[in-house]
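Q: Hi! First time doing this. I have a protein sequence and I read that you can turn it into a structure. Is that right? Here it is:
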Amino acid sequence: MTEHPATETSSAESPAAALPSLAFSGDSRAGAALADVRTALVFFAHPDDVDFGAGGTVACLARRGVKVVYCVMTDGDAGGFDDDSRAAIVETRRAEQRRAAEIAGAADVVFLGERDGYLAPSHELIGRVVALMREHRPQIVFSLHPERAWSSLHRSHPDHLACGEIVTRAAFPAVENNYAYEHLRAQGLEAYRLPWLFLFAGPDERTNLRVDVTEAVDTKLRALDVHLSQHPDPEAMRETVRAQLRASADSGQWAAPVTAAEEFHAVCVNGPGTFAGF
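A: Yes, that's right. Below is the predicted 3D structure, encoded as structure tokens:
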């Protein structure tokens, strides 16, 4: 596991205590979880995935004092458009993601260093994800979705699906079973029960939660702008993202007008009354 020092930043423009809870449309239990979260882990396949899929929500949470940690599974070494940049593309993309995380307010970025395009569920990778979950003990884990969206194969890159499957297998039962990956317990990483998975970039029909990110649109776009190696037409990218945020907002039901939203499939892993065995 390659880790990089935490970048302590805040994108807050006012004290967290002065900010209202995030507005949401959909599952009321998931919305309540957003109000109570103190630590969130975000898993994604390539540098920039989180900034497209959940960057606004991350920025909103960070402004409210939530500790957010990113985990990038691949190095994004198959990305970009310039043959001459191949030798340097890994460090370029890592630097871009570190800077984007700083803008969003994430506390740290962990790189697992897998090869872009080759990501697949394995016990080695699941164990590394379980270790991160047990180390940070988040109330919410964000991840790419493990199911293919036939309406957008671009959204369902095979690495995205693999990331979602790895995280889902880690979330249950492995993270809460001390007899799974027993070497972790020997390292002091005790099992715990994860309350929520928030999955993004999944099939439209799975969406059950929309989060108002109107306050963070500029932050989200600034974070995306950092990924210069991936955007042959930055303005077209920005307009596409703005349109997606508007469409998501228009699809929700809100108590007050909302102009930008991000979508999730919120899954309660462990809640009141949950009974589970292994």
